[in-house]
Each structure stands twice: as structure tokens, then as C-alpha cells.
Amino acid sequence: MTTTGGAGARPAPRTEEDVHRMPDQVSADELADRLLAHPSVARLHGGQYGEIATYLPGRRITGVRVGERAVEVAVVLRLDRPLPPVLAELRAGLADAVGGVPLDITVADVVAPGEGG
Question: Are 40 and 82 in contact (CB under 8 A)?
Fold first, then answer.
């Protein structure tokens, strides 16, 4: 948050940018684990060029991108149930971890119910 004025100035009012800033405690590992725990998620997907990923020291988490103002995930789903309820469950399962920031879920591909991805 920014301040206005000189020494002892009050903090500036919260802006739209501040409200949608990513909570510090969001963990790409935790998000990936939550997604993979869902029975309809076959695997995570990195996007067409591998751009959906979070880079950490010595490793990369494919399929989860935690940005400053949004979270983007990409999944391959099993076609065992209709997609809208599955996506609603995934969104609900991640909601507390991402706080109020935008969450984009991309279904990159689908596989038959018995396939692992």
C-alpha cells in the first residue's frame, strides 16, 4: 500500500489493485495438490507452450501459475461427470486458498473415465 504526503502521513486508501493482490500465503504446491486430489482431475496441464507454471528454486509446478493479481490453473479432466459441476467443485476447493483474487480454470483436455491422463 502506498502513502501520501510526508513523514507521519496516513496510508492512502486501498485501491482496486490492492484489493486484488495475491495473498502471500498462496502456495502453488498446495493448489496443485488440491486439484490432483479431485477424482475428475487426470493431471495438470502446462498450456500450449508450457506457460502455465510456477517456477520455484530447482523445480517447476506445471499447470499452476500464481501471479501477483490472479491464479491460473489448467487441468485435464476425466469425462466421468458433466463439466460444469466439476469446475464448480474445483473452484470451491481452491477459493479459500486464493482469497478474493481472480481464479482462471482452463480445461486443456479431457480423457475417458478410466484413463489417467
Answer: no
Q: What is the DSSP string of 57-101?
A: TTEEEETEEE-SS-EEEEEEEETTS-HHHHHHHHHHHHHHHHTTS
Q: Among 33, 44, 47, 40, which residue's Cα sits nearest to residue 112? A: 40
| DSSP-assigned beta bridge partners for residue 66 | 71
Per-residue model confidence as pLDDT tens digits over 17-63: 444 444 555 799 999 999 999 999 999 999 999 999 999 899 999 99
- Find all residues with CB under 8 Å of 52, minimum gap 6, and list them: 45, 46, 62, 63, 64, 65, 72, 73, 74, 106
Q: How far apart are CA 51 and CA 72, in angstroms?
A: 10
Closest of 107, 84, 98, 101 to residue 31, by C-alpha: 98
pTM of the model: 0.77
Cell of 47: 498450456
Helix (H, G, I), strand (E, B) or coil at 5: coil
Joined grid coordinates for residue 67: 501471479
